[in-house]
Write a structure and sequence with these properties.
Layout: H1 6-21, H2 31-40, E1 46-52, E2 56-58, E3 62-71, E4 83-89, E5 95-102, E6 107-113, E7 121-128, E8 141-148, E9 167-172, E10 183-190, E11 200-204, E12 210-215, E13 221-226, E14 235-239, E15 245-249, E16 257-264, E17 269-277, E18 284-290, E19 293-300, E20 306-312, E21 319-326, E22 332-340, E23 346-352, E24 356-357, E25 362-371, E26 380-389, H3 400-405, H4 427-438, H5 445-449, E27 465-473, E28 484-489, E29 495-500, E30 506-511, E31 517-524, E32 531-535, H6 558-574, E33 598-601, H7 611-618, E34 622-627, E35 630-637, E36 642-643, E37 649-652, E38 655-656, H8 659-663, E39 670-682, E40 685-695, E41 710-715, H9 731-734, E42 744-752, E43 758-764, E44 770-780, E45 785-794
Parallel strand pairs: 2-8, 24-45, 37-40
Antiparallel strand pairs: 1-3, 3-6, 4-5, 4-7, 7-8, 9-10, 10-13, 11-12, 11-14, 14-15, 16-17, 17-20, 18-19, 18-21, 21-22, 23-25, 25-43, 26-42, 26-44, 27-30, 27-32, 28-29, 28-31, 31-41, 33-39, 34-35, 35-36, 37-38, 39-40, 44-45
Organism: Niastella populi
Protein name: Macroglobulin domain-containing protein
Keywords: Signal
Length: about 800
């Protein structure tokens, strides 16, 4: 970790000097807000948050999750993308599990069965949309999960608390230290796992004189005031709790430059002081923005080396605001972050019908949602997880509000982000340290001021999953002219799509309501078999630079691990079928061409041995004609009372086939024939009638396609697995000899409070005694986010 702006400012200095020369003769600062507005008008960011039922799992268990999607700029309801991509990655960013999840009104849910082949370790769960693939992977949602495979020998040693690797970093407020100018310096000391370390320290001059003293406040962070006497080197000596000491050099002080200081004294006014040491008395410009929305844009003159900005705190939106100071050459010379605690909070509370329970007893939760301290309730959409706490599974320090307002806005690891939303007495000062430590955000001023609009490669999936293919010649060249392409998903539900290649030879099929795994068939009218079609990977192949923490189990975890393992094996042995119940998705099974003109069930007619006989004998709407020595099909046009001059679209189980393939197909394998006699327009394609044949199982039995067709297995949207929770309503049920060693008592992605903010949830305890936690997270229709948890005991 390093101070944010030294490399950045020097890298952009030349560019911004050239840019400034274009704005001479006009207000030197006028271009900044305008370019900022133009840049952000070209993109709508998205944010995803994933609530998982737990964060510790065994191989062979189910992982449950719910996805929340919001507008990343304003945290308003997001209904842009209809598909979310969820992955579990290992430490080398190789996928262990992948799924495509349908989003409806910005919500979706799913599950992963963790395979018994997985290796014990820490894994990264991440989620994003197709639209988010246009931006840095740092914007993807990411969360660390721990998975242990008790069916394999665990070679990873337990945590060694004696071997410590410490990391120390110092962050001058605004980015710079300037000689003889007082600055606030934030610092952070972390261990090998990235967690903060409490410590004390002193700053020493080259003569070993003490220039400042400091100590941490929370999570290894703190700050102190410091005035460098010159550009000499200063060092900090940090004393750690274990008696070790670390010596670290402070950032170098400049002979001249700018120093920024922000004051929030609780009066409702924010004061920003900019000190310009040995600089020309030119005005400076303060620009503040929050999630793509401009908050403050002010210019102030420099008198006696100081410029002061004061503005109403209400001008700033909730959450993190970036304040950047520009000089008259449009160079960003200082920058820092400021956090305004959000007022738009969904207050979530819940209580159980008793503080303690026995085994296999009913638990009733009363849930309440409202806005802040309002008296009346508000309707909300929540997810609920109830699980057992032990040395392996603790309460997750992350939650939905903390992610939206903090984690998603900052780079790097944040320890216990949910704590910053508590009422702790030192939370304001600790939040200030967090803002100073994270200094420079993901925002890039060079791109903005250059007015370089991003070129988007990936489109939002407004309606359904987009299957992307690319066609190339074996020589590597791309077709010069557009090529027709068709995609079919065989089955009883007719799924057929058509499109044309673009100038890059890419083919985009906007596929809707495709669930589960099936074969897809891609066909083109490429001139010869030297053209190949590749189905591109829909999952992102770029990754953030966040590293997984080292994997280690607590030293005293063996007993808890045995309990988890027994519970997992009992559930998989006695109730395996109940873990694989999937809900049938609500999809439109009507064919794309609507109601056909005529439907023929071939079993209602005399069975013939050739398809030509079937059509000639009792399908008058379809004629079989011969020319050029081959048989062709024509559909009757009732408007002109004659057959269309060109061939119809011929489908077999949704797959486009030509006359030759169809007429050589065994009619005894066909169950149904539908004929559409109207001209049908589908996208850029016009079909003179449609003839659709369906086999008994919809699986194209023994169909031999053209050699240019590409057939492969392709995973569609994930089917929703139903959570299994046993019921012990009667004494007979409670006395069942079937063992119940569940540590996850309940999971629901769809806890809906009514218009008064009320909901009731019921479930039953298992045979496992211990302390359990109920975690609720969710949003209301205005996308106010909230989270709540409480504990209860099972010990009777």
């Amino acid at each position: 970790m390093k101070s944010f702006n030294y490399l950045y400012l020097s890298a952009t200095l030349l560019f911004l000097h050239l840019f400034a020369s274009q704005t001479n003769g006009q207000d030197a600062f006028a271009a900044i807000p305008e370019r900022f507005k133009q840049f952000n008008s070209s993109s709508t960011p998205e944010k995803l948050y994933v609530h998982t039922d737990k964060s510790f799992y065994l191989a062979g268990e189910l992982l449950w999750f719910k996805i929340y999607s919001v507008d990343g700029a304003r945290h308003l309801p997001a209904d842009l993308s209809k598909i979310a991509y969820v992955e579990i990655l290992d430490k080398e960013n190789k996928p262990v599990m992948q799924a495509k999840i349908h989003l409806r009104k910005g919500k979706g849910n799913g599950s992963f069965y963790l395979p018994v082949s997985v290796t014990s370790g820490n894994y990264k769960l991440r989620a994003y949309t197709n639209w988010m693939k246009n931006f840095s992977a740092a914007y993807y949602f990411e969360k660390t999960l721990s998975i242990v495979n008790t069916l394999k020998t665990l070679t990873t040693p337990a945590a060694d608390t004696t071997a410590k690797l410490y990391r120390v970093a110092f962050f001058p407020e605004g980015g710079n230290l300037v000689k003889e100018t007082t600055s606030k310096i934030a610092f952070q000391v972390t261990d090998a796992l990235g967690n903060g370390v409490d410590c004390k320290g002193v700053v020493l001059s080259e003569n070993n004189d003490t220039s400042a003293r400091f100590q941490t406040l929370r999570f290894g962070m703190g700050n102190f005031m410091f005035t460098p006497a010159g550009t000499q080197s200063y060092k900090a000596v940090i004393l750690l709790p274990d008696g070790q000491s670390i010596t670290q050099t402070l950032p170098q002080a400049y002979e001249q430059g700018y120093v920024m200081h922000l004051e929030d004294e609780g009066t409702g006014v924010i004061k920003v002081t900019v000190t310009a040491k040995a600089m020309q008395p030119q005005p400076v410009f303060l620009f503040a923005h929050n999630r793509q929305v401009m908050q403050v844009a002010e210019k102030q003159p420099v008198f006696n080396g100081v410029a002061t900005f004061s503005f109403d705190k209400n001008k700033l939106a909730d959450g993190i605001t970036t304040l950047t100071v520009f000089n008259e050459q449009q160079q960003p010379v200082c920058e820092r972050l400021y956090f305004k605690r959000p007022a738009q909070v969904l207050s979530v509370t819940a209580s159980s019908n008793a503080p303690r329970y026995g085994n296999r007893k009913r638990v009733a939760l009363s849930v309440n949602t409202k806005h802040g301290n309002a008296q009346s309730g508000v309707q909300a959409d929540l997810s609920l997880a109830v699980y057992r706490l032990d040395s392996l599974q603790t309460v997750d320090p992350n939650n939905l509000p903390a992610y939206l307002w903090l984690t998603s806005e900052l780079t790097g690891h944040i320890e216990s982000p949910a704590w910053y939303f508590t009422e702790a007495g030192d939370v304001k000062e600790a939040t200030e340290n967090l803002m100073l430590v994270h200094g420079w955000r993901k925002f890039n001023w060079q791109v903005v001021l250059n007015d370089k609009r991003p070129a988007f490669e990936y489109t939002p999936e407004f309606d359904g999953h987009i299957i992307t293919c690319q066609i190339k010649h074996n020589s590597g060249t791309i077709p010069e002219n557009p090529i027709d392409a068709w995609l079919s998903i065989p089955g009883i539900q007719l799924q057929f799509y058509n499109t044309k290649t673009d100038k890059e030879g890419k083919i985009y099929f906007d596929v809707r309501d495709y669930y589960g795994q099936n074969e897809i068939i891609v066909q083109t009218d490429a001139p010869d078999s030297n053209y190949r079609v590749n189905v591109l990977n829909p999952f992102s192949e770029k990754y953030s630079n966040r590293l997984l923490p080292p994997f280690a189990l607590p030293a005293a975890s063996q007993y808890a691990l045995n309990e988890h393992s027994i519970g997992m094996q009992v559930l998989n042995t006695y109730d395996p079928g109940k873990l694989s119940h999937f809900a049938i998705p609500e999809i439109d099974t009507f064919p794309f061409y609507g109601k056909p003109y005529k439907v023929y069930k071939l079993d209602d007619y005399t069975r013939f041995t050739t398809m030509e006989e079937v059509l000639r004998e009792y399908v008058p709407e379809v004629a079989v004609r011969r020319w050029d020595g081959q048989l062709h099909l024509k559909v009757f046009n009732f408007e002109v009372r004659d057959f269309y001059p060109t061939e119809p679209l011929i489908l077999l189980d949704g797959v486009k086939v030509n006359n030759h393939i169809l007429l050589n197909y065994d009619p005894l394998k066909v169950n149904r024939l539908e004929v559409t006699t109207n001209k049908f327009i589908k996208g850029e394609f016009v079909y003179h009638g449609i003839v659709n044949f369906t086999t008994y199982h919809g699986d194209m039995q023994d169909l031999k396609l053209d050699s240019k067709a590409v057939i492969l297995d392709y995973e569609g949207l994930q089917l929703k697995r139903e959570f299994y929770s046993p019921v012990y309503k009667t004494e007979q049920q409670a006395l069942s000899r079937m063992p119940d060693f569940r540590n996850l008592l309940y999971w629901s992605p769809d806890v809906q409070t009514d218009s008064s903010g009320q909901a009731t949830v019921e479930f039953y305890t298992s045979d496992m005694k211990g302390k359990y936690v109920a975690v609720l997270q969710g949003m209301d229709e205005a996308d106010y986010a909230g989270s709540y948890y409480f504990t209860f005991d099972v010990d009777k």
